[in-house]
Each structure stands twice: as structure tokens, then as C-alpha cells.
Inner membrane protein CreD
Amino acid sequence: MTKKLWSVLGLCLVFAVVLFAIYGLAEQRGYYQSSTLLDAEDYRMIIRSVKYGMVLVVLVFASFFLSEVLQEWRIHPMQYLLVGAALSIFYLLLLSLAEHIGFTAAYCIGAFACISLLCWYLHFVLATTRGVYMMTALLAAAYGAMFVLVKMQQYNLLVGSCLLFAALFAVMYYTREIDWYALGGEAKD
């Protein structure tokens, strides 16, 4: 399990680089205002979305990893990679669609497309239908929360911090009785 954790953390770093590249693209296109439909504020919302993207990837990967531990799911690192790719593609869809149909419509279409793709894929990856619906609900809630955070300007740091605190509490609560040494095959001192 320790090896799996390092694989997941490594994939998080890979997607940080991918999101950084998308961030640079969005920033460049915003600088040149590539679309007549989008104003500078819409580009700023896209850029803020990409900034929150790493939090989304980490939350989804952490949920998958914890589900592996708590529910004995088996998710291969390649499957994490494909899920992360779908999460990253959302930001390219958001940027490219927003330049033609506006930010809100692009966000809704991109989120729906990525959530649908992941829901379909998870039917083949996860052991239970309940797990698929649980992860799909988590994705929908995460994309919804991210949309609200991007739209809020004055309270986004406060709300985002509270949401991250709640997520950390949930992780601590559900893992409070796990013997992490036993999972990693390491002996307790």
C-alpha cells in the first residue's frame, strides 16, 4: 500500500505540471483576448478554475486511495492516470468552449462531459455500482463547489478553506481506526 501511495503522489505531480501548462495557455489567451465573446473577467475565472484544478485532482485521488483502503477496492495506477487525464481535459474543454459559448455554459458542458465520462469508466474500474455512484456524486459536488468558488470573489478563500477543512475532517474521521503500519506491511515500533 505504501508503494501505491507513492505512485498516486507521483501522479499528482504529473498533473500539477499538466495543469501548469494549461494555466499558461489560459493566461496567454486571456492576455491576447483570443475571443470576442469573453472579456477579461471570464479569462480570470478560467485561470482561477485551473488554479483550483490541483485541489480537485488531489481530492479525487485521495478519495480513490482512501476507498481502496476502506472498501478494499483495487485501482491500478494506470486507472488513476486515466482519471487524472479526464480531470485535466476539463480545463482544456473549459477554455476552448468558453471562447465560443461563454464561461458558464462551457463550465456546465465541460463538467457534465467529464463527469459522464468518469461515471462510465468507473463502472469498469470499481467493484460496486454503489461505489460508482458515490464517486460520481463526489465529482459532481466537487465541480459544483469549484464553480461557486470561482464565481465568488470576496469569500472564495474563506469558503475554500472551510471546504478543505471539512474534507480533512472527513478523511480523519473515516480513517481514525486504520492501522497504517499494518497496511504498509511495516511492523509497529
Summary: The two ends are 19 Å apart (CA to CA).
